From TrEMBL:
GO biological process: negative regulation of transcription by RNA polymerase II
Pfam families in the record: RAWUL, zf-C3HC4
Domain RING-type: 18-57
InterPro entries assigned: RAWUL, Znf_C3HC4_RING-type, Znf_RING, Znf_RING/FYVE/PHD, Znf_RING_CS
GO molecular function per UniProt: promoter-specific chromatin binding; zinc ion binding
SUPFAM superfamilies referenced in this protein's UniProt entry, alphabetically: RING/U-box
Name of protein: RING-type domain-containing protein
Domain of life: Eukaryota
Keywords: Metal-binding, Nucleus, Zinc, Zinc-finger
Region (Disordered): 254-282
GO cellular component: PRC1 complex
Length: 282
Protein backbone atom coordinates (compact mmCIF):
# COMPACT_ATOMS: atom_id res chain seq x y z
CA UNK A 1 0.00 0.00 0.00
CA UNK A 2 1.28 3.45 -0.92
CA UNK A 3 2.01 5.67 2.08
CA UNK A 4 -0.04 8.86 2.02
CA UNK A 5 2.03 12.01 2.49
CA UNK A 6 0.22 15.35 2.65
CA UNK A 7 2.09 18.50 1.65
CA UNK A 8 1.10 22.07 0.93
CA UNK A 9 1.45 23.19 -2.66
CA UNK A 10 3.52 26.14 -1.43
CA UNK A 11 6.18 23.65 -0.30
CA UNK A 12 6.52 22.36 -3.86
CA UNK A 13 6.38 25.72 -5.61
CA UNK A 14 10.20 26.16 -5.80
CA UNK A 15 10.37 22.93 -7.82
CA UNK A 16 7.51 23.59 -10.26
CA UNK A 17 7.84 27.32 -11.00
CA UNK A 18 9.91 28.98 -13.71
CA UNK A 19 12.86 31.08 -12.43
CA UNK A 20 12.29 33.62 -15.23
CA UNK A 21 8.57 34.38 -14.90
CA UNK A 22 7.93 32.99 -11.38
CA UNK A 23 4.84 31.21 -12.70
CA UNK A 24 4.08 27.51 -13.00
CA UNK A 25 5.84 25.73 -15.85
CA UNK A 26 4.02 25.90 -19.19
CA UNK A 27 5.55 23.71 -21.92
CA UNK A 28 8.39 22.87 -19.53
CA UNK A 29 11.79 22.80 -21.23
CA UNK A 30 15.03 21.57 -19.65
CA UNK A 31 18.62 22.46 -20.53
CA UNK A 32 20.52 19.26 -21.25
CA UNK A 33 23.85 20.44 -19.83
CA UNK A 34 22.77 21.66 -16.37
CA UNK A 35 19.20 20.26 -16.10
CA UNK A 36 17.67 23.62 -15.15
CA UNK A 37 14.06 23.93 -16.34
CA UNK A 38 12.02 26.87 -17.61
CA UNK A 39 8.87 27.67 -19.53
CA UNK A 40 9.57 27.19 -23.24
CA UNK A 41 8.59 30.73 -24.21
CA UNK A 42 10.58 32.24 -21.31
CA UNK A 43 13.72 30.31 -22.22
CA UNK A 44 13.48 31.13 -25.93
CA UNK A 45 13.15 34.84 -25.18
CA UNK A 46 16.26 34.63 -22.98
CA UNK A 47 18.26 32.71 -25.59
CA UNK A 48 17.45 35.35 -28.19
CA UNK A 49 20.04 37.59 -26.50
CA UNK A 50 22.23 35.09 -24.65
CA UNK A 51 23.78 31.64 -25.11
CA UNK A 52 24.09 30.83 -21.40
CA UNK A 53 21.79 29.29 -18.80
CA UNK A 54 19.81 31.97 -16.92
CA UNK A 55 20.53 30.26 -13.58
CA UNK A 56 24.10 28.94 -13.63
CA UNK A 57 25.44 30.91 -16.63
CA UNK A 58 26.87 27.79 -18.29
CA UNK A 59 27.45 28.03 -22.05
CA UNK A 60 24.78 25.99 -23.85
CA UNK A 61 26.04 26.01 -27.43
CA UNK A 62 28.49 28.20 -29.30
CA UNK A 63 26.29 28.75 -32.34
CA UNK A 64 22.75 27.47 -31.69
CA UNK A 65 21.73 27.20 -28.01
CA UNK A 66 18.37 25.68 -29.02
CA UNK A 67 20.22 22.42 -29.68
CA UNK A 68 20.97 22.16 -25.95
CA UNK A 69 17.35 22.31 -24.74
CA UNK A 70 14.70 19.62 -24.70
CA UNK A 71 10.96 19.52 -23.96
CA UNK A 72 10.37 17.96 -20.53
CA UNK A 73 6.97 16.27 -20.86
CA UNK A 74 7.32 14.37 -17.59
CA UNK A 75 7.85 17.58 -15.63
CA UNK A 76 4.96 19.31 -17.41
CA UNK A 77 2.65 16.38 -16.71
CA UNK A 78 3.64 16.51 -13.04
CA UNK A 79 2.87 20.24 -12.86
CA UNK A 80 -0.56 19.74 -14.42
CA UNK A 81 -1.29 17.00 -11.88
CA UNK A 82 -0.17 19.05 -8.89
CA UNK A 83 -1.88 22.34 -9.75
CA UNK A 84 -5.69 22.00 -9.98
CA UNK A 85 -7.21 23.66 -13.02
CA UNK A 86 -3.89 24.71 -14.59
CA UNK A 87 -4.27 22.56 -17.70
CA UNK A 88 -7.83 23.74 -18.33
CA UNK A 89 -6.88 27.39 -17.78
CA UNK A 90 -3.92 27.12 -20.17
CA UNK A 91 -6.03 25.55 -22.91
CA UNK A 92 -8.62 28.31 -22.45
CA UNK A 93 -5.95 31.01 -22.78
CA UNK A 94 -4.60 29.40 -25.95
CA UNK A 95 -8.05 29.23 -27.54
CA UNK A 96 -8.67 32.89 -26.75
CA UNK A 97 -5.25 33.92 -28.07
CA UNK A 98 -5.55 32.08 -31.38
CA UNK A 99 -9.13 33.25 -31.79
CA UNK A 100 -7.83 36.81 -31.61
CA UNK A 101 -4.73 35.98 -33.69
CA UNK A 102 -5.75 33.34 -36.25
CA UNK A 103 -2.60 33.80 -38.35
CA UNK A 104 -0.12 33.11 -35.52
CA UNK A 105 2.11 30.04 -35.31
CA UNK A 106 0.27 26.83 -34.36
CA UNK A 107 3.25 25.05 -32.80
CA UNK A 108 1.70 25.26 -29.32
CA UNK A 109 -1.74 24.16 -30.46
CA UNK A 110 -4.95 26.14 -30.33
CA UNK A 111 -6.18 24.64 -27.07
CA UNK A 112 -8.70 22.40 -28.83
CA UNK A 113 -6.87 19.19 -27.96
CA UNK A 114 -8.45 16.75 -25.55
CA UNK A 115 -7.03 15.97 -22.14
CA UNK A 116 -3.71 14.12 -22.17
CA UNK A 117 -4.19 10.55 -21.01
CA UNK A 118 -2.46 11.11 -17.69
CA UNK A 119 -4.08 14.44 -16.75
CA UNK A 120 -7.37 14.32 -14.83
CA UNK A 121 -9.37 17.43 -14.06
CA UNK A 122 -11.26 17.45 -10.77
CA UNK A 123 -14.42 18.69 -12.51
CA UNK A 124 -14.66 15.89 -15.10
CA UNK A 125 -16.54 12.59 -14.91
CA UNK A 126 -14.66 9.28 -14.97
CA UNK A 127 -15.77 5.75 -15.76
CA UNK A 128 -15.34 3.30 -12.86
CA UNK A 129 -16.14 -0.41 -12.57
CA UNK A 130 -16.76 -2.18 -9.25
CA UNK A 131 -16.38 -5.95 -8.95
CA UNK A 132 -17.14 -8.07 -5.92
CA UNK A 133 -14.42 -10.37 -4.58
CA UNK A 134 -14.40 -12.70 -1.63
CA UNK A 135 -12.05 -11.86 1.30
CA UNK A 136 -9.54 -14.35 -0.12
CA UNK A 137 -9.18 -12.31 -3.28
CA UNK A 138 -11.03 -14.50 -5.83
CA UNK A 139 -13.69 -13.03 -8.07
CA UNK A 140 -17.15 -13.79 -6.73
CA UNK A 141 -18.67 -15.64 -9.70
CA UNK A 142 -19.99 -18.67 -7.81
CA UNK A 143 -23.04 -16.99 -6.30
CA UNK A 144 -21.87 -17.50 -2.72
CA UNK A 145 -22.85 -13.87 -1.89
CA UNK A 146 -26.38 -14.39 -3.16
CA UNK A 147 -27.84 -13.28 0.18
CA UNK A 148 -26.65 -9.69 -0.43
CA UNK A 149 -29.75 -8.24 -2.11
CA UNK A 150 -29.07 -10.04 -5.38
CA UNK A 151 -32.57 -9.09 -6.52
CA UNK A 152 -31.30 -5.53 -6.95
CA UNK A 153 -27.67 -6.13 -7.93
CA UNK A 154 -26.23 -8.72 -10.30
CA UNK A 155 -23.15 -9.65 -8.32
CA UNK A 156 -21.72 -11.77 -11.13
CA UNK A 157 -21.16 -8.71 -13.31
CA UNK A 158 -19.19 -5.52 -12.69
CA UNK A 159 -21.10 -2.42 -11.68
CA UNK A 160 -20.25 0.47 -14.02
CA UNK A 161 -20.45 4.03 -12.74
CA UNK A 162 -19.81 7.53 -14.03
CA UNK A 163 -18.37 9.36 -11.05
CA UNK A 164 -16.93 12.82 -10.43
CA UNK A 165 -13.15 12.79 -10.22
CA UNK A 166 -13.36 14.20 -6.68
CA UNK A 167 -15.51 11.29 -5.40
CA UNK A 168 -13.76 9.49 -2.54
CA UNK A 169 -13.37 5.82 -1.70
CA UNK A 170 -15.46 6.49 1.41
CA UNK A 171 -18.34 7.62 -0.82
CA UNK A 172 -18.04 4.42 -2.86
CA UNK A 173 -18.15 2.33 0.33
CA UNK A 174 -21.31 4.14 1.43
CA UNK A 175 -22.86 3.56 -2.02
CA UNK A 176 -22.12 -0.18 -1.79
CA UNK A 177 -23.53 -0.41 1.74
CA UNK A 178 -26.78 1.28 0.70
CA UNK A 179 -27.09 -0.62 -2.57
CA UNK A 180 -26.59 -4.03 -0.95
CA UNK A 181 -28.40 -3.28 2.31
CA UNK A 182 -25.48 -4.33 4.50
CA UNK A 183 -25.80 -4.63 8.26
CA UNK A 184 -23.59 -2.70 10.73
CA UNK A 185 -21.60 -5.92 11.29
CA UNK A 186 -20.53 -6.03 7.64
CA UNK A 187 -17.61 -3.87 6.49
CA UNK A 188 -16.63 -2.88 2.95
CA UNK A 189 -13.07 -2.57 1.65
CA UNK A 190 -12.17 -1.30 -1.83
CA UNK A 191 -9.05 -2.41 -3.69
CA UNK A 192 -7.03 -1.51 -6.76
CA UNK A 193 -5.39 -4.81 -7.73
CA UNK A 194 -4.00 -6.02 -4.36
CA UNK A 195 -3.83 -2.62 -2.63
CA UNK A 196 -6.52 -1.70 -0.12
CA UNK A 197 -7.41 1.95 -0.73
CA UNK A 198 -7.66 4.58 1.98
CA UNK A 199 -11.13 6.05 2.49
CA UNK A 200 -9.91 9.60 1.77
CA UNK A 201 -8.48 8.70 -1.67
CA UNK A 202 -10.41 10.34 -4.50
CA UNK A 203 -10.95 8.74 -7.90
CA UNK A 204 -8.51 11.32 -9.29
CA UNK A 205 -5.91 10.27 -6.68
CA UNK A 206 -6.27 6.62 -7.71
CA UNK A 207 -5.88 7.53 -11.38
CA UNK A 208 -2.69 9.46 -10.61
CA UNK A 209 -1.14 7.02 -8.12
CA UNK A 210 -1.67 3.97 -10.34
CA UNK A 211 -1.07 5.72 -13.72
CA UNK A 212 -4.49 5.04 -15.21
CA UNK A 213 -4.31 5.63 -19.00
CA UNK A 214 -8.07 5.77 -19.85
CA UNK A 215 -7.88 2.62 -21.97
CA UNK A 216 -10.98 1.38 -20.16
CA UNK A 217 -12.96 1.99 -16.97
CA UNK A 218 -10.94 2.41 -13.79
CA UNK A 219 -11.24 -1.13 -12.45
CA UNK A 220 -11.82 -1.38 -8.69
CA UNK A 221 -12.70 -4.36 -6.51
CA UNK A 222 -14.58 -4.51 -3.24
CA UNK A 223 -14.79 -7.14 -0.51
CA UNK A 224 -17.45 -7.57 2.16
CA UNK A 225 -16.43 -9.03 5.52
CA UNK A 226 -18.88 -10.02 8.24
CA UNK A 227 -17.23 -8.92 11.49
CA UNK A 228 -19.42 -11.21 13.59
CA UNK A 229 -18.19 -14.26 11.66
CA UNK A 230 -14.59 -13.18 11.26
CA UNK A 231 -12.22 -15.87 12.52
CA UNK A 232 -9.41 -15.04 14.89
CA UNK A 233 -5.99 -15.53 13.28
CA UNK A 234 -4.12 -18.67 14.43
CA UNK A 235 -1.32 -18.19 16.97
CA UNK A 236 2.27 -18.16 15.67
CA UNK A 237 4.07 -21.53 15.38
CA UNK A 238 5.17 -22.81 18.77
CA UNK A 239 3.01 -20.30 20.61
CA UNK A 240 0.39 -22.94 21.48
CA UNK A 241 3.02 -24.94 23.38
CA UNK A 242 4.00 -21.89 25.38
CA UNK A 243 0.35 -21.21 26.10
CA UNK A 244 -0.19 -24.75 27.42
CA UNK A 245 3.02 -24.58 29.50
CA UNK A 246 2.01 -21.24 30.98
CA UNK A 247 -1.47 -22.56 31.71
CA UNK A 248 -0.02 -25.63 33.47
CA UNK A 249 2.29 -23.43 35.55
CA UNK A 250 -0.63 -21.16 36.42
CA UNK A 251 -2.73 -24.18 37.47
CA UNK A 252 0.11 -25.50 39.63
CA UNK A 253 0.56 -22.09 41.19
CA UNK A 254 -3.15 -21.94 41.90
CA UNK A 255 -3.10 -25.42 43.48
CA UNK A 256 -0.02 -24.54 45.55
CA UNK A 257 -1.66 -21.36 46.78
CA UNK A 258 -4.80 -23.26 47.76
CA UNK A 259 -2.77 -25.84 49.70
CA UNK A 260 -0.82 -23.09 51.45
CA UNK A 261 -4.06 -21.37 52.41
CA UNK A 262 -5.40 -24.68 53.77
CA UNK A 263 -2.22 -25.15 55.85
CA UNK A 264 -2.49 -21.62 57.23
CA UNK A 265 -6.13 -22.20 58.12
CA UNK A 266 -5.30 -25.48 59.89
CA UNK A 267 -2.47 -23.84 61.82
CA UNK A 268 -4.76 -21.01 62.91
CA UNK A 269 -7.43 -23.44 64.09
CA UNK A 270 -4.82 -25.47 66.05
CA UNK A 271 -3.52 -22.33 67.69
CA UNK A 272 -7.03 -21.33 68.72
CA UNK A 273 -7.69 -24.76 70.28
CA UNK A 274 -4.43 -24.55 72.26
CA UNK A 275 -5.39 -21.14 73.63
CA UNK A 276 -8.79 -22.46 74.69
CA UNK A 277 -7.20 -25.45 76.48
CA UNK A 278 -4.77 -23.16 78.31
CA UNK A 279 -7.61 -20.94 79.45
CA UNK A 280 -9.61 -23.91 80.73
CA UNK A 281 -6.64 -25.25 82.74
CA UNK A 282 -6.09 -21.96 84.50
Amino acid sequence: MHRVVKMRLSQLNPHITCPLCAGYYIDATTIVECLHSFCRSCLLRHLAGSKCCPVCDILLHKTDPRKAIKADRSLQSLVYKLVPGLFKAEMTRRREFYRANPSRDLSLGRGELAHPGDVVDETETLSVSLELVDPGGRLATTGEHRELRSDFVDLKRPCYLLTPACLTVGHLCTFIRLKLGLSPNQSVSIFYTDDCLSADYSVMDIAYVYSWRRRGPLRLFYAIVDKSKAQQPPPPPGFEGRLSTNKLAADQLSVGSSEAMDDDTSATESGSESDEDSGAGS
